[in-house]
């Protein structure tokens, strides 16, 4: 079983280099996999399945082709694209995952999540997350016109950037006690998530056991986690790319347990 995991591409028309890198990844790496996991914030913003930006059509065609070729593709909502719905999932041939998804990997019991749920010290963000994830808020938002939704999305992104700049780094990272509690409550041997833009492999905080793999955001580098029967390997490659991910380098690895 070969799996790839990616997150935090923040696809945006203003970043053609990231779009191109993802396209190359979907051509070069993804077809080799049995499963591809997209763990949130794949899009910089998503205002509804009825408002697909033109720049995404080639990428969506590539994802459909990948799914039709037999690769199972999974999508988990992030804090930027929590409005991706079943309509888009069916169009792309991908499976939507719950905000906390459990699988079994070579490392044992594994929990997949976007990761923002673990930033519990950021109280203001957690209140905002609860609001926008509510059915009532989403129904009211989706009832607006596309133009109105775009305006709201712009306002929310601007507010997020301003607030993020004012917060200490430890506030925007995961809370160790939240990680430890999750690992213990789920009896997880491994947690995989994105969101924090701090790619690394960490041992879970005591008294929990196991490990946590943080996926990287696609900015100056693209990141992907490759996982097979030998373990997990976190790779980076430089942007921009041409036709191949020629600058791929292994950054962190987690071997199969003995």
From TrEMBL:
An example Gene Ontology molecular-function term: manganese ion binding
Annotated keywords: Cell inner membrane, Cell membrane, Hydrolase, Lipid A biosynthesis, Lipid biosynthesis, Lipid metabolism, Manganese, Membrane, Metal-binding
Record's keyword annotation contains NADP: no
Residues that bind Mn(2+) 1: 8, 10, 41, 197
Pathway in which this enzyme or protein is active: Glycolipid biosynthesis; lipid IV(A) biosynthesis; lipid IV(A) from (3R)-3-hydroxytetradecanoyl-[acyl-carrier-protein] and UDP-N-acetyl-alpha-D-glucosamine: step 4/6
Domain of life: Bacteria
GO biological process: lipid A biosynthetic process
One Pfam family it belongs to: Metallophos
Keyword hit for Lipid biosynthesis: yes
Domain spans labelled Calcineurin-like phosphoesterase: 6-199
InterPro entries assigned to the protein according to its UniProt record, in alphabetical order: Calcineurin-like_PHP, LpxH-like, Metallo-depent_PP-like, UDP-diacylglucosamine_Hdrlase
EC number(s) per entry: 3.6.1.54
Cofactor info, note text: Binds 2 Mn(2+) ions per subunit in a binuclear metal center.
Compartments reported by the entry: Cell inner membrane
UniProt-annotated binding residues for substrate: 79-80, 122, 160, 167, 195
Record's bilayer topology term: Peripheral membrane protein
Catalytic activity: UDP-2-N,3-O-bis[(3R)-3-hydroxytetradecanoyl]-alpha-D-glucosamine + H2O = 2-N,3-O-bis[(3R)-3-hydroxytetradecanoyl]-alpha-D-glucosaminyl 1-phosphate + UMP + 2 H(+)
Cofactor or coenzyme needed: Mn(2+)
GO CC annotation, single: cytoplasm
Family of this protein: Belongs to the LpxH family.
Function, in words: Hydrolyzes the pyrophosphate bond of UDP-2,3-diacylglucosamine to yield 2,3-diacylglucosamine 1-phosphate (lipid X) and UMP by catalyzing the attack of water at the alpha-P atom. Involved in the biosynthesis of lipid A, a phosphorylated glycolipid that anchors the lipopolysaccharide to the outer membrane of the cell.
HAMAP family listed in its UniProt record: LpxH
PANTHER family, alphabetized: UDP-2,3-DIACYLGLUCOSAMINE HYDROLASE, UDP-2,3-DIACYLGLUCOSAMINE HYDROLASE-RELATED
Protein name (Swiss-Prot/TrEMBL): UDP-2,3-diacylglucosamine hydrolase
Species in which this protein is naturally found: Marinobacterium marinum
């Amino acid at each position: 079983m070969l799996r790839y995991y990616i997150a935090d591409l923040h696809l945006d028309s203003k970043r053609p280099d990231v779009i191109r890198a993802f396209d190359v990844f979907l051509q070069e790496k993804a077809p080799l996999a049995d499963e591809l996991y997209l763990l949130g914030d794949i899009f910089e913003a998503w205002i509804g399945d009825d408002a697909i930006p033109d720049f995404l059509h080639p990428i969506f065609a590539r994802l459909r082709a990948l799914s039709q070729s037999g690769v199972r593709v999974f999508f988990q909502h992030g804090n930027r694209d929590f409005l991706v719905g079943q309509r888009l999932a069916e169009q792309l041939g991908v499976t939507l995952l719950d905000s906390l998804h459990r699988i079994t990997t070579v490392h044992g019991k594994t929990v997949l999540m976007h990761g923002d749920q673990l930033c519990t010290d950021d109280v203001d963000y957690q209140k905002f997350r609860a609001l926008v994830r509510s059915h009532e808020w989403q129904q009211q938002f989706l009832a607006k016109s596309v133009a109105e939704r775009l305006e709201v999305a712009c306002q929310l992104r601007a507010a997020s950037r301003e607030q993020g700049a004012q917060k200490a780094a430890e506030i925007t990272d995961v809370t160790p006690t939240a990680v430890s509690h999750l690992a213990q409550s789920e009896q997880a041997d491994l947690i995989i998530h994105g969101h924090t833009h701090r790619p690394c492999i960490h041992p879970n905080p005591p008294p929990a056991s196991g490990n946590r793999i943080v996926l990287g955001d696609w900015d100056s580098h693209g990141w992907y986690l490759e996982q097979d029967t030998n373990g997990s390997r976190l790779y980076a490659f430089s942007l921009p790319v041409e036709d191949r991910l020629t600058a791929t380098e292994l950054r962190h690895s987690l071997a199969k347990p003995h």
